[in-house]
Amino acid sequence: MYDFIVNLKARSGYGKNIWRLIEHELKRQNVIYQKHITHYEYHAIKIAKQILNTHKSISHIVVVGGDGTMNEVINGISSFKNVVLGYIPTGSSNDLAKGLGIPSDPIKALNLALHPTRYSYYDQGNVTLHTKMKSRKYVVSCGIGYDACVCKEALNSKLKLFFNHLGLGKLTYAAIALKQLLRFQPFNGELMVDGTKRIILHNIYMISGMIHKTEGGGLIIAPDADPSDQQVSVCVVSDIKKYMFFFILPSLLTSKQKYFKGLRRFNCRTLEIHLEKSQIVHTDGEFTGKEKELSLGCTKEKLRMIR
């Protein structure tokens, strides 16, 4: 049996239409399944826990939603020993699906989940907010600063609703990105890389810890990211004047990126972040809180996913 965790509100309610198509196909193929509809924030965490408590054998969970829905599901799964995850992307950005090569067509993605050609294992990132004494796993990216501000505003933006209804969800992030950049105040801090290398930073705009290459619907933040290497691919923008960020942002849309002063990338096992002031943090586009003392890394256990 398959357990489907479904976010009908994904892509400003468009997820409801997609689920109708999926459910019609499930019935046509006589698939035995149970659906679990999310109704509020963090509900998918609770549902995932309930599914695992119910099943004694291997659980086949298929997530129907965006990257944020998947984020909640993995945070509700304490061990993947008896879990196989499928994914049908219905969100606005769907960076996880892009990274895994999962079709954007919901019926094709469904058939992949029902008739997999293979299972693959992928890293789970983990961020610890030390002041708040809490941790959260993530599948695509964790960001501090500018990109987190964009994600936070996009969650409840009327622009997102408008553009999603036009089928232009990616424009939401572009519009909000420009607005946030105009009013964003950079900050200072330092990094400790793998417990040995100290980097002092000024005028920080963003610090991103990536598992996959892209976030925000296709921004190539970490071109060399490998989602199975047990490393966090870090992208930092700092020590620049604000006008330079106007040049850096568009360059992230192309795979042939130029060198820019103030843009640095590296891979590491662990990253400690110490900031002068608390900043907004996101995990997979979801608001995670404000923090000034953080650490990033990967969990020892990998996700087992259908591809």
Report a brief summary of the structure.
With 307 residues, the chain is of the alpha+beta class. It has helices at 14-28, 43-54, 67-75, 95-100, 106-114, 146-155, 158-165, 170-183, 242-251; strands spanning 2-6, 33-37, 59-65, 83-89, 119-122, 125-129, 134-138, 141-145, 187-193, 197-204, 206-210, 214-215, 219-220, 232-237, 263-268, 271-283, 286-298, 303-306. The protein is globular.
Structural class: alpha+beta
The helical percent reads: 25-40%
Strand proportion, as a percent range, falls in 35-45%
What is the terminal separation in angstroms?
Answer: 18 Å
Quick one: how many beta strands?
18
Could you please say which CATH topology of the largest domain applies here?
Tumour Suppressor Smad4
> Low-confidence spans: pLDDT under 50, at least 5 residues?
none
Query: Which descriptor suits the 3D outline?
Result: globular
Q: Element order, helices and strands?
A: EHEHEHEHHEEEEHHHEEEEEEHEEEE
Number of helices: 9
Average pLDDT across residues?
91
Rg over C-alpha atoms, rounded to the nearest angstrom:
19 Å
Major sheet description:
10 strands, antiparallel
Number of domains: 2
CATH architecture of the largest domain: Sandwich
Give the class-level CATH name of the largest domain.
Mainly Beta
Chain-wise SSE layout:
Layout: E1 2-6, H1 14-28, E2 33-37, H2 43-54, E3 59-65, H3 67-75, E4 83-89, H4 95-100, H5 106-114, E5 119-122, E6 125-129, E7 134-138, E8 141-145, H6 146-155, H7 158-165, H8 170-183, E9 187-193, E10 197-204, E11 206-210, E12 214-215, E13 219-220, E14 232-237, H9 242-251, E15 263-268, E16 271-283, E17 286-298, E18 303-306
Parallel strand pairs: 1-2, 1-3, 3-4
Antiparallel strand pairs: 5-18, 6-7, 6-17, 8-11, 8-16, 9-10, 9-16, 11-14, 12-13, 14-15, 16-17
Helix pairs in contact: 2-3, 6-8, 7-8
